[in-house]
Design brief:
Layout: E1 13-17, H1 28-46, E2 50-54, H2 63-68, E3 73-76, H3 100-115, E4 120-123, H4 125-133, E5 138-139, E6 162-168, H5 173-177, E7 185-191, E8 196-197, E9 205-209, E10 215-220, E11 225-228, H6 239-256
Amino acid sequence: MQTSRNLPGGRPRIGVPVRLSSSLDPDPRVAEANGLFEYIVELLREGGGEPVLLTAVEPADGGLAAALTTLDGVVLPGGGDLDPGLYGEEQTEVCYDVNQAQDALDVTVARQAIDAGLPVLGICRGHQLLNVLYGGTLVQDMAPGTVVHHEAAPVHGSGPWAWHEVGVRAGSKVAALYGSESGAVSVKIASGHHQAVARVAEGLTVTAVADDGTVEALEDPERWVASVQWHPEALEIPAGERLAPFRAFVEVCRARR
């Protein structure tokens, strides 16, 4: 059977590693992350792609490695915290939903996709995972912001998000996702995270920073690998603005094919 990579008019096949934690977890953030995963899948489909859910299960056709050979790109979604052991630290009590099976799946998908030259987009946890995969570290729990709030609180934000503006560097991959091929772009972002990039990995370039210094976007200048700390899939974002970066990423994957 032919895959879309053999069909010029077919939809680009974009892999998304599934979330392995149950929405019945008593921590409500787990169910929220699983819901955001579904939004990403929907937006990729609406943007012209064919989402392919990647699991840790090894089917008879060769498993994850075989599935990756059929893909045109990968999105690494949000979710719980990475095991700090991946970046050489001990886990503290502030970490939530640390799932070693999830880490193994996401790291394997990311590493094999990058090695294969596939476009890769990381979102929130995916942003942090790419920094760790390249050799960087994370802040396990951010101090309460005085200049920029990164998690929603009763006194600010709307719904589950803290909202703030981020300037994205001109000529970057993320700026292109938001419609700017050559100029800088300002994006009002839906922010909801308690961890962040600490030491930026060698091989990655910072392309957006919050006013308090938090690294908001990264990219590999040698490959189409980019990431954002925020949630472009958030339902509270106007529909057209919400779809635009996913449609643009689908076109990146189409061009690569």
